[in-house]
Amino acid sequence: MCSAVLLALLLCVLEFRYAECGNPSNIVFILTDDQDVLLGGMTPMKKAKSLIGDAGVYFSNAFTATALCCPSRSSILTGRYPHNHQVRNNSLTGNCSSAEWRKGPESLAFPVYLNKQLYQTFYGGKYLNQYGKKGAGEVSYVPPGWDQWHALVGNSKYYNYSLSVNGKEEKHGDHYDKDYLTDLIANRSLEFLDKRSPQHPFFIMLAPPAPHWPWTAAPQYEGAFSGVKAPRDGSFNKPGTDKHWLLRKALNPMSNTSITFLDNGFRKRWQTLLSVDDLVEKVVKKLEALQLLNDTYIFYTSDHGYHTGQFSLPIDKRQLYDFDIRVPLMVRGPGIKPNQTVKAPVLNIDLAPTFLDIAGFNLSVVNMDGQSFLSQMAPTLRNGSARPYFLVEYTGEGHTESDPACPKLGPGLAHCYPDCVCEDSFNNTYACVRMLTDQNLQYCEFADSESFVEVYNLTSDPHQLENIVKKVDPTLLQAMNQRLIRLQSSQGRWDLDPELRLLE
Ligand SMILES: *[C@@H]1O[C@H](CO)[C@@H](O)[C@H](O)[C@H]1NC(C)=O
Ligand SMILES: *[C@@H]1O[C@H](CO)[C@@H](O)[C@H](O)[C@H]1NC(C)=O
Ligand SMILES: *[C@@H]1O[C@H](CO)[C@@H](O)[C@H](O)[C@H]1NC(C)=O
Ligand SMILES: *[C@@H]1O[C@H](CO)[C@@H](O)[C@H](O)[C@H]1NC(C)=O
Ligand SMILES: *[C@@H]1O[C@H](CO)[C@@H](O)[C@H](O)[C@H]1NC(C)=O
Ligand SMILES: *[C@@H]1O[C@H](CO)[C@@H](O)[C@H](O)[C@H]1NC(C)=O
Ligand SMILES: *[C@@H]1O[C@H](CO)[C@@H](O)[C@H](O)[C@H]1NC(C)=O
Ligand SMILES: *[C@@H]1O[C@H](CO)[C@@H](O)[C@H](O)[C@H]1NC(C)=O
Ligand SMILES: *[C@@H]1O[C@H](CO)[C@@H](O)[C@H](O)[C@H]1NC(C)=O
Ligand SMILES: *[C@@H]1O[C@H](CO)[C@@H](O)[C@H](O)[C@H]1NC(C)=O
Ligand SMILES: *[C@@H]1O[C@H](CO)[C@@H](O)[C@H](O)[C@H]1NC(C)=O
User: Fold this and answer.
1) What GO cellular component term, any one, is given (predicted)?
2) Neighbouring residues of 16: CB distance < 8 A, sequence distance ≥ 6
3) Which CATH architecture has domain 24-387?
4) Which atom of ligand 11 is nearest to the CA of 461?
5) What residue segments make up the domains of the chain, in order of their start?
6) What gap in Å lies between CA 273 and CA 45, rounded to an integer?
């Protein structure tokens, strides 16, 4: 009896999982919108890096399973690949906040399970792009699992927006002190912390609009980073000659107006991030003041990356290249030693299982594609199984008619701005296998009229300048194609699927 108690105590101390020791730990999850990691997106985040990453762990190989807001956020919420949650794009018809999403995948999202574990849950900020609109349940709809709900209606904005506050519409104007969204959600989370019940753990999710367009900085940061320009190295202003159709269409070299536009955007994105840096500091200071910091995990990441001039695409995401699919990820919390870097690849679909693992939830009863990375951060008695390869999949967006601003371009394209350079098309639809073992390889197939294939060896070519599809051994291409087919039809964790393991 005594030894059983001792063993439980030992397990709880060694595993740093307070589920076994009584109350599970608290969790704060900060999710930015469009923040890259490869082009200096974390440079403005001085306080956040010092308070989270330096005090815990940086993941140097964190990826999104898809480089677009609504599908990526749906993956984060459900722990599932897009082919399983079936949210394809940012429109209602592509399942973004659709009735089918609400009835199906959203009812199995992580907050539902956390709530069952008696977590007090708080949401603040941008949710899914169509959230709160007609056909998406309107403002009165509060997704299941959230006790306190302060969600933005529609896509990212900094001023002049509506919030759903627990199902009631709250309109905001453009007074900095009252309305600036990044500051507002920080303030509301502090109020939540004051009012929470100390009997139960809490989960706070903060999703600021930054650094998404329209890049509206707080007044005190409007002059910051003057003279800063987008980086000119790597694939900046390079032609996409050996790449898929959309990239071959981009104007190269870019026009001066495009370059001025993207440099401006680059600087303004950084300015908006300074308010996110303040948000992190406010939350950490509050947790410290309430003596909760030592029992709270803090996660910081973005929904996907971003590009400014890479392969002559002025500004956006949606591409298969590392600048769009890599994301920042840092975590601090109980059992995580400071100043660590983890190289094992992790995906956005791993966040939900990691939260549930911290909460002490039995992961074998949830149907998620991701896997917990708790043991990678806080090595314990359990061993994490690193995945040898993973899937990145994307369904291109388009307009069925020509863009009125660029009538010469014809239908099928989207986001042709500035200078009528298009960032997306229906046939920018692809699926990739990424191998990150002793090899760093990417293999992608397009659903277009050319069945186009792109292959990169990122060990020798980190900027993906050369598509080596015609140079590599055909047996390697065949093996990658087999893995892709398996992954695209996979359901659940790869390491539990014997067919997938055979391909290792
Ligand atoms: C992390 O490393 C930096 C530089 O090596 C050091 O200044 C800092 O004190 C370390 N932080 C912690 C929490 O150990
Ligand atoms: C939307 O999701 C439902 C299942 O939730 C699926 O049946 C439907 O095909 C999806 N729509 C699209 C356009 O993928
Ligand atoms: C907010 O809306 C008002 C009224 O339409 C407008 O005058 C103002 O310029 C808008 N502010 C911002 C920052 O867009
Ligand atoms: C946030 O709180 C600070 C400190 O109380 C206050 O000065 C600021 O006006 C608030 N901002 C918003 C948008 O609520
Ligand atoms: C574009 O900018 C470059 C470099 O600043 C300059 O040399 C060139 O003349 C400009 N072209 C046009 C058409 O303005
Ligand atoms: C955290 O610190 C507080 C105050 O110093 C202490 O009472 C508590 O036991 C600590 N909790 C953990 C999980 O270490
Ligand atoms: C988790 O659930 C599975 C499937 O129901 C069960 O076999 C297993 O014993 C459970 N594990 C724990 C630790 O409760
Ligand atoms: C973890 O992995 C190491 C190295 O592969 C092995 O020696 C050890 O026995 C494993 N521990 C557990 C608990 O599986
Ligand atoms: C979103 O996906 C749906 C279903 O595939 C499609 O009908 C619609 O055109 C897509 N929206 C855009 C903007 O591409
Ligand atoms: C991609 O779509 C565009 C617009 O519909 C079309 O003009 C082009 O031929 C297509 N390219 C490929 C490779 O499918
Ligand atoms: C990738 O590049 C590395 C370093 O040059 C090389 O060792 C490796 O063989 C290459 N892999 C393939 C598949 O070309």
Assistant:
1) lysosome
2) 334, 335, 378, 380
3) 3-Layer(aba) Sandwich (3.40)
4) 2
5) 24-387
6) 7
